[in-house]
Write a structure and sequence with these properties.
189 residues, alpha+beta, Alpha-Beta Plaits, four-stranded antiparallel sheet, 5 helices, 4 strands
Length: 189
């Protein structure tokens, strides 16, 4: 029989309403926690700001998607141009009416299209990779009460990856900011 190993994912607090969730998110951020997330059954105005996700906030993580898209565009454009050059000049040269083999203006439409294709493909794949998607299972799904997050529950999870995280202090902190239930979240490997 295989032994399942459990690792601590974080601490989950349940709150009564959207207002208490926003207030709790502000207090968690003010307490210095950085790796936390809030869950509500509907869009709550002001929740993303309370969690510190608004643009322009100091400490906002640098977005790498534009650089990834640039890399994809360069790879696509250069790859398309040099493939056409290789075919028309090196591999299968055709002398048509004495025109030059390296007729680069004819290569521009395909080069442009492959630049756009490469940039968009790299941007989508980079965004998925940076967001760690797809993530078909989250350890929060192991908590029975978390099923209410899509119906009428308001939750805030402080993740164990946070540099300030301590199980006992995080649990006491969530209880001190009026969480009606606090649950340890474990991930089964």
């Amino acid at each position: 029989m295989s032994e399942t190993r459990q690792t601590l994912y974080g601490v989950l607090g349940e709150f009564d309403s959207a207002k208490t969730l926003i207030a709790a998110a502000k207090k968690v951020r003010e307490a210095g926690y950085e790796c936390f997330d809030a869950f509500a059954p509907y869009p709550v105005p002001g929740l993303s700001e309370a969690c510190g996700l608004e643009l322009g906030l100091k400490g906002w993580k640098h977005n790498l998607v534009p650089q990834i898209a640039l890399l994809g565009g360069l790879c696509g454009g250069l790859g398309g141009f040099f493939f056409q050059y290789w075919v028309n000049v090196i591999d299968y040269p055709l002398n048509i009416a004495g025109r030059p083999l390296n007729s680069w203006p004819a290569f521009i439409p395909v080069t442009f299209e492959l630049t756009v294709l490469g940039a968009s493909t790299f941007a989508v794949l980079g965004m998925l990779a940076l967001n760690k998607l797809p993530q078909p299972h989250c350890p929060l799904f192991n908590v029975p009460s978390f099923k209410r997050a899509t119906n009428d529950g308001f939750f805030l999870c402080i993740e164990a990856t946070d540099k300030k995280f301590d199980l006992a202090s995080a649990t006491k902190f969530l209880q001190s900011i009026n969480a009606k239930a606090v649950t340890e979240v474990r991930d089964e490997d």
